Automatic annotation (TrEMBL), chains A, B:
This is Histidinol dehydrogenase. PANTHER family: HISTIDINE BIOSYNTHESIS TRIFUNCTIONAL PROTEIN, HISTIDINOL DEHYDROGENASE HDH. GO terms for cellular component: cytosol. SUPFAM superfamilies: ALDH-like. One of its GO terms (biological process) is L-histidine biosynthetic process. NCBIfam families: hisD. It comes from Campylobacter californiensis. Its EC number is 1.1.1.23. Belongs to the histidinol dehydrogenase family.
Amino acid sequence: MKFLHTNDADFRDKFSQLVRRSDMDMSGVMPTVMKIIEDIRKDGDDALFAQIAKFDKFTPTSTQDLLISTKQMQEAYDALDNTLRESLKLAYERIKAYHEQSVPKTWSMRDEHDVLLGAKYTPVDRAGLYIPGGKAAYPSSLLMNAVPAIVAGVKGIVVCTPAIGGNVNSLLLAAMHLCGIKTAFKIGGASAIAAMAYGTKSVPKVDVITGPGNIYVATAKKLVYGEVNIDMIAGPSEIGIIADDSANARHIAIDLLSQAEHDELASSFLITPVEAFANEVSKHVASELKSLKREAIAAESIRNKAAIIVAKDMQECVELINELAVEHLEIATNDALSYMNDIRHAGAIFFGHFTPEAMGDYLAGPNHTLPTGGSARFYSPLGVENFMKKSSIISIGRKGIKELGKACMNLADAEGLGAHERSVKVRLEDF
Amino acid sequence: MKFLHTNDADFRDKFSQLVRRSDMDMSGVMPTVMKIIEDIRKDGDDALFAQIAKFDKFTPTSTQDLLISTKQMQEAYDALDNTLRESLKLAYERIKAYHEQSVPKTWSMRDEHDVLLGAKYTPVDRAGLYIPGGKAAYPSSLLMNAVPAIVAGVKGIVVCTPAIGGNVNSLLLAAMHLCGIKTAFKIGGASAIAAMAYGTKSVPKVDVITGPGNIYVATAKKLVYGEVNIDMIAGPSEIGIIADDSANARHIAIDLLSQAEHDELASSFLITPVEAFANEVSKHVASELKSLKREAIAAESIRNKAAIIVAKDMQECVELINELAVEHLEIATNDALSYMNDIRHAGAIFFGHFTPEAMGDYLAGPNHTLPTGGSARFYSPLGVENFMKKSSIISIGRKGIKELGKACMNLADAEGLGAHERSVKVRLEDF
C-alpha cells in the first residue's frame, strides 16, 4: 500500500496525482457511443433491437420482449426470505424519510412595491433511471434512484437495466416491486441512455436521466446532456478516511477494503496524523484482504489506487481532504463532529467511530449516488431536486410598474433594446 | 406572421415543429471547439494568447494584457450619468434581495435511532462567469450571473468577456464595479470557457461556469461539462404569451417584438382563445415593427420564428404552453394568477397586464438566465444553488449501529459485498 508523508520533499508531486485521480478519458469510446446514439435517434426501435441483440445477448422482436412485467417484480419480491425483505423495506423507508426532508418548497412574497415574487417547484414529467446489471446489479442503486423521483412526485418513472441473455437479477426485480415501478425495460448501456433521451416507439422520451454506469454509460450521458438533464458524470467509487489513534485500526482497514472491493479502479485513502496508526491499518489491510470473497478485485485496487498519508496534525488532514474532495469521507476521531465546518468538499461525510460507509450505502437515509473524482467540488449527491425544476414567479401591478418602470426603461435604453423599453413605456402611458 | 388554429387538420404537425424548435446542431462547430479546448489544455497561455489574437483582434503578450483593471471599472462607473447609475443600483439591489430568499439551507435532525442526518451546503471555491461582448454586451447579464455567485458566498469570482480590439463596453465595466468584481479577463468565446475549465498560467481553474453565449460557447460548455459544472446549455431567447381580449393588443404586440429584437433566431408565440384579438395583435406587430431601431433583426425573427395560435379556450392555451415549455411566459388576462397551478413548464412566468418580460430582464429580481428551447421541462433559472453544492451528513452512534446494523449486513451480503458487511459486523462484535 502506498505511503506518503507530508514532510517528504516530493509530497506535493505525489499528492497532486491523487488530486487529479480521475482523468476519465472518454475519447476512446466516444465514436462508438456517438454511433449508438445517432442510430437510435434515426432508426428508433430497429436500431435499439439490433444493439440489444449485439451487446445483451438476447434478441427482442417487439416492445413486449423488452418489458419487465410487474408480475415478475411481485414474484421476486414474494420469493425473498423474510429477513432480507424486511431489511429492504427498512432501507426504503429510511431513504424515503430522509429525502422527504429536502423537497424544495415553492415560495412567494410581496415586496414594498406590491410586486409578487417567488419560485414555483414542479416535478419533471418523466425520469429515466439507469440501473447497471450483471456483476454490479445492485437493488440499492434502484432504491437510491427511484425514491427521490417518487418523493419529487414524478409521474412517469422509467427504468432501464441490461438483461444479459434476457435475465434480470431477482433482487433488482424485488426492489422494483417495492418502489412501485410500472415501466421497466431490459436495455443496457449507451443504448438505454440514447433510447430514454430521444425516445423510440417502445421507450418513452424522458426529461432527466440518472444512475450509475460504466464508461459507455457515462459518455452517453454526457452526449445527451442538454437534450435531457442528467444527475452527474460519475467515475469509479472512492473513500477518504481521516482517523487518529482513537479509531480501531482493523475497522478502518475494513472500511478501506469496502471501497476497494467494488472495482479495481476504486480509490481508498487514509489520512492520519499518527504514523504508528498508519502502520497498523496497513497491516490489517493485508491480513483482512485474504478473507474477502472479492479478494482479487480489492487487492488490485489497494495496490494501484490506495494511499495512506501521514500528516503533521489534524488541521493538515482536513486541508488535504478538502483538496481531494472525495465521494465518501469518514472522520473517525472522538471529536469528529467538531470538524463539520472545516470540511468544504465531500459527497457524504460519515462522522465518528460507528459510521462505516456501508451504512450510508444502504440505509442511513441519504443518497449513495455521489460525486466522484474530485467533482464534489461542484456536484451534489443525487436528491429530490434532480427530479424537479423551478419557474420564477413575477406579478407586477399598476403601483409596481409606476415605481419601477422608469429604471427598467433606462437600462433597456442603455442596452439599445428599444422594444424592451417601449413595452414598459406604453403601459405607463396608457394608464 | 404565422397563424395556426388548433382546429386545423394539420395543427398537430405544425405545432410539433414549434415544440421541437431548438434543434441546436453543434456538429458543425464541434471539431473547431474541440481543437480550441485541446490546445488550451495542452499549451495553456500560449494557445490562449494565439486564439485571442486570431478571434478577438488584439495581441496579448502577458497576463497583464488580459486583465481588466478595477480602476477601469471604477472610472466607467463614475462616468455613468446619475439616472442610469441609480437604475443599475436599483437592479442590483432587487436582484440581490430576491436571490437572498433562495439560499439553500444546511439542515440536520436526529432520528429515533439517535442517528444524526442532514445536508450541509457550501459555496464552490471559484466560479467563472462568461459575459458576451460586442453587440450583445449586456451589463444586465453581468448582474444576473454575478449576484447569485456573490449571494452564495463564492470567494473566487472570475469574469471573462471578449474585448474586440482590446476594448470592453463601458456599461459592462460599470456593472463589474457595482458587483465588486476583482478578477476579469478580456477573453472571448470557446477560449474563455476552456481557459476557465482547465486553468492556464493567467486564468485560474474554476469549479462552475455560467453565462450566455453563441453556439461556440454553448458547445464548449457542453464539452467541459463534468470537468466543471455548468448552468445549462442555452439557445436563442423566446417568449410565449397567453392573452385574451382583456389585454391591450398593442402592449402584447410590443412584448412579442421585445423578444424578436434580440436575435433573428429568437421565437415569439402568442396563444389566445380570441381570434379577433389575434388579428389585432398581428396588425400591431406589423406597425410597431417599423418604429424599432433593430427593425431588421426583429422583422426576420417575426417572419421565420413567430406564431400566433388560436385555441378553443383558456384550458387549451394552458395545455399548449406546457408543451412548448417556453423560457418566458406571460399570462395577460384579468385572472392571470388563477393559472399558477396549471403551468407546469416555463422558465419564468409573468402574470397580469402590467408585467412585461422586460421588467424581469432587468430588475424585477428573479434571474433572467433561463432555460430555452423547451428545456424548461428539466432546467431551472440560474440561481444561488448553481454556485453551491451539498454534502450529506451521517453520524451513527452505538445505539444506531446496534439497531440498524444487522439490516445493513443483510443487504450487503445479498449484493455479494463482503467487506461492506464486515465493516458493520466488526463494529457490532467489538462492542
